[in-house]
Amino acid sequence: MELAVLKHNGEETGRKVSLSDAVFAIEPNDHAIYLDVKQFLANQRQGTHKSKERAEIAGSTKKIKKQKGTGGARAGSIKSPLFRGGGRVFGPRPRDYSFKLNKKVKQLARKSALTYKAKENNVTVLEDVSFDSIKTKQYVSLLSGLSLSDKKTLLVLPETNKNVYLSSRNLPKARVITVNDVNTYELLHADTLVLCEGSVSKLENLLSK
């Protein structure tokens, strides 16, 4: 699959980039995508949730009423989960939600996501981007030139560029990452994948190991 390399204003540079079939045209594996997205979202969870059980509630341990003769159920503690202000039964406790996923499964998931983007013609190749200063207006004009102002975009840089990243950070539909940070969730979340010219070969090498 060949794509034209675009300038920042959306015009063609005259160069073309060939996308590898081994990365952008495989047989997609939906289950691998599911597992990789599930792991990504699980790793975002802090797992710091906590509620107090009856042993942790502050309160009197005095028996609140006599055992028999009241006509009601027996009750031994005001900290019982049955009473307002009592402890919670089997409440949440701090835990780690992360789980292991094999490297090959993650690679397959990312190649599957890239294949879906290529099939839907949602991949754009852009000449390498570099800003001299942090200007959100400059990034907005870049998206405008590519006719992507209203779409969720994921720009993949070949290497870290702080000015480009900070210029895009205030835009809710724009996301900028490097080749090493490419993940299945963000690939699928974006409407359009924008690859810098220098990112294509690096991405193919990374996913072909």
TrEMBL record:
<comment type="subunit">
    <text>Part of the 50S ribosomal subunit.</text>
</comment>
<keyword id="KW-0689">Ribosomal protein</keyword>
<comment type="similarity">
    <text>Belongs to the universal ribosomal protein uL4 family.</text>
</comment>
<dbReference type="InterPro" id="IPR002136">
    <property type="entry name" value="Ribosomal_uL4"/>
</dbReference>
<keyword id="KW-0694">RNA-binding</keyword>
<protein>
    <recommendedName>
        <fullName>Large ribosomal subunit protein uL4</fullName>
    </recommendedName>
</protein>
<dbReference type="InterPro" id="IPR023574">
    <property type="entry name" value="Ribosomal_uL4_dom_sf"/>
</dbReference>
<comment type="function">
    <text>Forms part of the polypeptide exit tunnel.</text>
</comment>
<dbReference type="GO" id="GO:0005840">
    <property type="term" value="C:ribosome"/>
</dbReference>
<feature type="region of interest" description="Disordered">
    <location>
        <begin position="45"/>
        <end position="77"/>
    </location>
</feature>
<comment type="function">
    <text>One of the primary rRNA binding proteins, this protein initially binds near the 5'-end of the 23S rRNA. It is important during the early stages of 50S assembly. It makes multiple contacts with different domains of the 23S rRNA in the assembled 50S subunit and ribosome.</text>
</comment>
<keyword id="KW-0699">rRNA-binding</keyword>
<dbReference type="Pfam" id="PF00573">
    <property type="entry name" value="Ribosomal_L4"/>
</dbReference>
<keyword id="KW-0687">Ribonucleoprotein</keyword>
<dbReference type="InterPro" id="IPR013005">
    <property type="entry name" value="Ribosomal_uL4-like"/>
</dbReference>
